Every structure is written in C-alpha cells, then in structure tokens.
Amino acid sequence: MIIASEVHKHFGGFRAVDGASIEIADGSITGLIGPNGAGKSTIFNVIAGVLKPTSGKVTMDGEDITGLPPHELFHKGLLRTFQIAHEFSSMTVRENLMMVPGAQAGENLLNAWFRRSQIATEEAALKRKADEVLEFLTIDHLADEKAGNLSGGQKKLLELGRTMMVDAKVVFLDEVGAGVNRTLLNTIGDAIVRLNKERGYTFCLIEHDMDFIARLCDPVIVMAEGKVLAKGKADEIMQNDAVIEAYLGTGLKNKVKEEANG
Question: What is the CA radius of gyration of the chain?
Fold first, then answer.
C-alpha cells in the first residue's frame, strides 16, 4: 500500500532520514521502532506530507504521493496522529468528531441562509456516526464531555475516532501509548486490532512499549541514525544483536547477554 523508497530528509547538515526505505503492506499493523533521534517521526512526517523529502519517493497504491500536502492525503484516506493529541478542548467529544468530515454544507454561507434543512439533515447523520464511533471505542459515556477534560489516553482514543469519521485507509500513529495508563492502552490496542480486522484499516505505529508492539505488530521495522536497521517479527527483532546495541549501546548489550546466560 505505502512504499517509501530511498527517502532522505536533511536539516542543514543533519541527516534525520538517510536513505531509508520502508514498505507498509495493505491490511498490516506495522511497527516502527528505534532509539530517540532514529528518524522515525521524520519519515512519518515525510510520508504524511508534513515535510517534503530532500530526495526519495513515496507511493500509495502505486500512485506517487511524494510531497503532497496533508489535506490532499486526507482525501486519499491517509491520516496521521501525533504524540501530543490535538483536540478542540472547548468543544465536546462528539463535536470534535463531527467536525472531521470535509465539505460540510454548513461551511457554506449561502447554505447557512437558504438550505438550513440540508444542514440539519447532514448534522443529524454526522451525530449518528459520531455516536457509533464513540460506542465502538467504548467512550460513548464521554460524548458530552469537553474534550479538554479528557485524560491522555482518552484523547488518544478520540484521535483514533477521528480517523473513523472519514473511513481512513491507512493511519499513522505516533507514540499512541505515551502517557497512557495500562488499562487505557489495552483499550486502544483492542480498538486498533478491531479496526484492522473488522474494517480493513492499515496501521503503521511508532511506539516504545515493546509489549504493545509485540502484541499488535507484524512486521516490525527498526530505524537507527536515519536508516532502516532491521525488519521482521517482534520476537526476532528483540533477539537481534544490532537492534539491542542500537537501543542499549555495546556495554549494556554485553551486560544483558551475560545476565541472560546466567
């Protein structure tokens, strides 16, 4: 579905992404891991149109989408969430969801004056869909709560809900588990798996919680210093010497091995 080929992204003399190539298969939940500064979020931003690559190519279903802005990718079904949730804090949870679909009749001033019944019909349909999404995510009890009052984990669920309002094809999730308690993280994980299996969503997620990655992701891609270091199943990745060294450094890697060997 998504192929990023020989992507480079330089900031002055710093090569944040240095010739990385990754592939996200249709229907997969792909994990992207690596130490801080590995280039994970940068390549996310390049694929999602937030940053233009210095060089390289990104395709989606065979179509060249390199450098397309986020709003164009949004209409193609490619969405990206951020490590820090971006909710409209003074609006309710339901209203946050209802705002997502584009080209709503109420956005046109003439419609607001002369086609109020059309706007009312559309808003009723959006409300029904938002309530279905909230029920799917098991946060329907928060529908009328101000989004700014939600916990970190609940805000991550709300961001996931936004992708459901437009029936996304592929969703990039940046550290969905950051600052989220274990119970809510399990709820988020369940929702991702259900969206993948029941609705055909493709996911690629950055995450540092290896238990979460191992539960959800196949394959797992490892980045280090702007390059792809390894790719495989989670259990294989966690036994890979190069991956262990990239995360822990040579000294700690040897210590871990000594402890494992008794």
Answer: 20
| Calpha distance 104→87 (Å, rounded) | 19
DSSP string, 7-19: EEEEETTEEEEEE
Pairing mode of beta strands 14-24, 170-174? unpaired
32 vs 218: CA distance, rounded Å? 10
Residue 135: both structure tokens together: 């029920």
- Bond into 219 cis (ω within 30): yes
Structure-token match 């029941």, residue found: 198
**pLDDT class of 232 with cuts at 50, 70, 90:** very high
pLDDT digits (tens, 9 = 90+) for 141-172: 999 999 999 998 899 899 889 888 887 899 99
Cα four-point dihedral sign 91, 92, 98, 101: positive
Domains of the chain, start order: 2-87+167-260 (3.40.50.300), 88-149 (no CATH)
Half-sphere exposure of 207 (CA within 13 A, CB side): 26
What's the full length of the chain, in residues?
Answer: 262
* Closest by Cα among 200, 201, 239 to 222: 239
